[in-house]
Amino acid sequence: MHQEIINLHPHPSSLDRDALLRCIDDCLDCAASCTACADACLGESDLPELVRCIRLNLDCADACDATGRIVTRQTAPDLRLIITMIEACAAACVACAEECERHAAHHEHCRVCAAVCRSCKQACDDLLATIV
Amino acid sequence: MHQEIINLHPHPSSLDRDALLRCIDDCLDCAASCTACADACLGESDLPELVRCIRLNLDCADACDATGRIVTRQTAPDLRLIITMIEACAAACVACAEECERHAAHHEHCRVCAAVCRSCKQACDDLLATIV
Amino acid sequence: MHQEIINLHPHPSSLDRDALLRCIDDCLDCAASCTACADACLGESDLPELVRCIRLNLDCADACDATGRIVTRQTAPDLRLIITMIEACAAACVACAEECERHAAHHEHCRVCAAVCRSCKQACDDLLATIV
Amino acid sequence: MHQEIINLHPHPSSLDRDALLRCIDDCLDCAASCTACADACLGESDLPELVRCIRLNLDCADACDATGRIVTRQTAPDLRLIITMIEACAAACVACAEECERHAAHHEHCRVCAAVCRSCKQACDDLLATIV
User: Fold this and answer.
1) Which partner for A26 in A38, A66, A120, C12 could form a disulfide, CB atoms 3.0-4.6 Å apart?
2) Could you tell me how far CA A80 lies from the centroid of its own chain?
3) What pLDDT does residue A13 have?
4) Cβ neighbours of C69 (radius 10 Å)
5) Distance (Å) from the alpha carbon of D69 to chain B's nearest alpha carbon
6) ipTM of the modeled complex
């Protein structure tokens, strides 16, 4: 329902509506996916192989969470702040996707999480392309 | 896709699966809705009437965000921690819903946000009912 | 410096000032300590023994982060929301402290983190005692 | 005490220790300061003049919170992720400082918050200078 609330803003931002909503939704899904993947990795028997995956999952969850909140706000935005934040989010998604992909053959949760990160990276790039 | 990752955990928690997934999804949606409603309120011409609404939106977003992360984790949970966190989340949702409802007639975003908060409160209660 | 800003609020909350500031500072320090302890645990050679410690560190960081933000706000508070949130934070601190203490003899970071969690739990209890 | 835990990491990161600890502390203080300044602004009688200040305070709090968590982690870091995140944090601090400075003559909390944001921006730049 948050999409509906975003669309009800009294002074909607000038950002491309579809690209904005997709970026927000992907950030939310990616933050939750990375939190869940880090937790699933913690339960695996080959845990020592997954240390870097957990660390990047945690970073990516934090970056996506903050970015999702910031791009949700439409009142009086600062474009440079938004652009650099989306760039940081995209970098976090790439780093996490690459590491998750290394474990995709052994762990389904890493395979799915990598796909979510790739999608979120694309949503960030697409939103950036409508801004700059 | 985060639901799929949660279902791929090597040692799923013993919590009721449907109640858990609904609580997680409602927490994510409610956190994003409250962030968006606070921001929409900031753009309204009757802003001084909406001060308490903004404050409770911010609180509810923070409570739902933390609760969503915590209930997402299935590895080695502490039940008392989880129960008190869900109770705090439910209290935040009720407080925010009641305030949003006071503005529902004038602001569609408050009307929708109140409904999201009520739904999340119910999801918290339903998950608690399966635990205690 | 955030303490100074809190003291400059135009309508300070009626909560006990010393108890409030100590709770905020302890929540900030505990959130950062738990994030650092989870990360230090990830680097230890006996990582499989530390799975529950990492999980509770992550939960406690999230609970303290949200609670720190909520008790920082003084405008138009909802007391029930604040009380349940502080209770959840105290429960998270106890759970994390107990687990960290199990590893305190082998890991200095767990020993220090347990002390931070105990202090934050006490700060939560002390603030609650001034409210209820 | 979180500084002590960071120093007890079994495999400390290669980042400059002093610059790292200062950046972490400034991110924590700036996140809390921006949360408190947004809340103080909500209580002011000239609230409509402070809309942009509140919005940028919220953004800066989220950026500093995520950055503080990410730079706290020393296990298996991804440098590009860290660099872009610190850059986003610096951009958030500049945007928030500039807006807070516009209100510094009328609101002490904005004056103090601007100084905190400027300090955090410098800490980010100094840490970046040791990396790149």
Assistant:
1) A120
2) 19
3) 87
4) 28
5) 14
6) 0.97
